[in-house]
Design goal:
This protein has helices spanning 2-15, 122-163, 170-202; strands at residues 23-24, 35-41, 49-55, 60-68, 74-78, 85-94, 97-104, 108-110. It is an alpha+beta fold. Strands 3, 4, 6, 7 and 8 form a 5-stranded antiparallel beta sheet that branches. It has a 3-stranded antiparallel beta sheet with strand order 1-2-5, with no helix packed on it.
């Protein structure tokens, strides 16, 4: 009787699978070449493991981390280039034997990589255009100033040229000659008068 009960307990233990302490959580929003954080729960007795992405439908497996310490509780890594599709699972396996699976998640999908497109700030183009516009009026103002200056210089030199012309005045010359003739005639008349007076006394 006791032997039969003992045999039944042994049979029950033999058919009951051992429950692994390490439990992986299903990742969310995972993308190829993206950065992803994987988390799990563990027991202190758990051994280091490797992480694999596995797709049973296509029989694809991709190693993403090796010799991970269970006590970390999580790990953030960059996903390698993997096909974008559904039906992936995450597996924690024996470091030395990938067929020895410690824990596996439910299925999830891997999405396409996300990329950002750089843009040129609009303020840079506006500033450049404004600078070019301000340069042209400055050039026109300078030309106008130069023209005005040249005109002023030409006008100011004209009186100087006129005032420096000191040619002889014919009228002044004629007047000076007439005065000299009258003066000489007076002297001659006086001399003749003196001679006539001397001649009268002699007679």
């Amino acid at each position: 009787m006791l032997f039969s009960k003992f045999a039944s307990l042994l049979a029950l233990v033999a058919v009951t699978p051992l429950v692994a302490a390490l439990t992986l959580n299903i990742p969310e929003n995972i993308t190829t070449q993206g950065t992803q954080t994987f988390t799990w729960t563990y027991e202190t007795s758990d051994e280091p493991f490797s992480l694999y992405l596995y797709n049973e439908e296509f029989n694809d497996s991709f190693a993403i981390a090796n010799n991970v310490e269970p006590s970390l509780g999580s790990i953030t890594i960059q996903i390698p280039v993997v096909p974008v599709r559904d039906g992936y699972t995450l597996r924690a396996v024996n470091v030395g034997n990938i067929e020895d699976v410690y824990s596996s998640t439910g299925s999830f999908s891997v999405g396409a990589a996300t990329q950002s497109i750089p843009t040129t700030p609009a303020s840079t183009r506006t500033s450049s255009s404004g600078t070019g516009t301000s340069t042209r009026p400055a050039s026109a103002t300078t030309t106008s100033a130069s023209t005005t200056s040249a005109s002023t210089t030409s006008t100011s030199t004209t009186p100087t040229s006129t005032s420096s012309n000191t040619g002889a005045n014919p009228l002044a010359t004629n007047l000076s000659g007439a005065s000299s003739l009258k003066f000489n005639s007076g002297l001659m008349a006086a001399a003749l008068a003196g001679v006539a007076a001397a001649a009268a006394v002699a007679l």
